[in-house]
């Protein structure tokens, strides 16, 4: 059984999706720690107290000091994979290098579009027809690592950022669970800027077809 460390900054709905999949027996993994850069992140409440680690990242004089303490804490639980599930703080180059190839992140856009924050508002402002979410390997550059899989939703007339965010969140959960399942089954690996799936280069991201499906499909052309 693979060991997962989860990083989260907010309410932890993606973390809950992982917990639910483990409890349902559809994800053969164990959460060995939940780590947050915010002392009162609601995500921490979704796991027992002995699995919680949190610090106020803003209290550290240097960004690297927090990253080093976080990395040391993660090392103590010996995870096979580290999943950033709504973790809103950029990870430094040294941290990424320490865990490179075992770091996954879910991001609310169809990368490479809309790296960074306020993705939903930016998508609406640009008038795009589709938006969505991506799960990618973490690299030192913000939201620039190799993309494993994506889920798409329409952008509808009259959408607000909050309305669009809820539509994206509905597909984020099955998307993240599906990719974590590939990870714990040993089916994906990072090779530079490329994802290997079953040892073969993945030329385009896989896709989750709907919020009701945790099955990944080949990309459609």
UniProtKB/TrEMBL annotation:
The record marks 143 as: Raises pKa of active site His. GO terms for molecular function: phosphoribosylglycinamide formyltransferase activity. N(1)-(5-phospho-beta-D-ribosyl)glycinamide binds at residues 12-14. InterPro entries: Formyl_transf_N, Formyl_transf_N_sf, GART. This is Phosphoribosylglycinamide formyltransferase. HAMAP family: PurN. Pathway: Purine metabolism; IMP biosynthesis via de novo pathway; N(2)-formyl-N(1)-(5-phospho-D-ribosyl)glycinamide from N(1)-(5-phospho-D-ribosyl)glycinamide (10-formyl THF route): step 1/1. (6R)-10-formyltetrahydrofolate binds at residues 63, 105. CDD domains: FMT_core_GART. It holds the Pfam family Formyl_trans_N. It catalyses: N(1)-(5-phospho-beta-D-ribosyl)glycinamide + (6R)-10-formyltetrahydrofolate = N(2)-formyl-N(1)-(5-phospho-beta-D-ribosyl)glycinamide + (6S)-5,6,7,8-tetrahydrofolate + H(+). Keywords: Purine biosynthesis, Transferase. The keyword Transferase applies. Residues 3-180 form the Formyl transferase N-terminal domain. Its EC number is 2.1.2.2. Catalyzes the transfer of a formyl group from 10-formyltetrahydrofolate to 5-phospho-ribosyl-glycinamide (GAR), producing 5-phospho-ribosyl-N-formylglycinamide (FGAR) and tetrahydrofolate. The active site is at residue 107. Belongs to the GART family. The keyword Transferase applies.
């Amino acid at each position: 059984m693979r060991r997962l460390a989860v990083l989260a900054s907010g309410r932890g709905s993606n973390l809950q999706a992982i917990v639910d999949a483990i409890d349902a027996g559809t994800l053969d993994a164990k959460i060995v720690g939940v780590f947050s850069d915010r002392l009162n992140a609601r995500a921490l409440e979704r796991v027992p107290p002995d699995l919680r680690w949190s610090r106020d990242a803003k209290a550290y004089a240097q960004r690297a000091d927090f990253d080093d303490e976080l990395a040391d804490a993660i090392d103590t639980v010996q995870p096979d994979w580290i999943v950033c599930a709504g973790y809103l703080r950029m990870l430094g180059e040294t941290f990424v290098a320490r865990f490179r190839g075992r770091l996954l992140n879910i991001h609310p856009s169809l990368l490479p579009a809309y790296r960074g924050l306020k993705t939903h508002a930016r998508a609406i402002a640009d008038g795009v027809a589709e938006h969505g979410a991506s799960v990618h390997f973490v690299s030192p550059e913000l939201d620039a690592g190799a993309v494993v899989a994506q889920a798409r939703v329409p952008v509808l007339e009259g959408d607000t950022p909050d309305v669009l965010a809820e539509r994206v969140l509905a597909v984020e959960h099955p998307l993240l669970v599906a990719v974590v399942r590939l990870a714990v089954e040993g089916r994906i690996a990072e090779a530079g800027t490329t994802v290997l799936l079953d040892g073969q280069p993945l030329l385009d991201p896989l896709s989750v077809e709907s919020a009701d499906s945790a099955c990944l499909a080949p990309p459609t052309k």
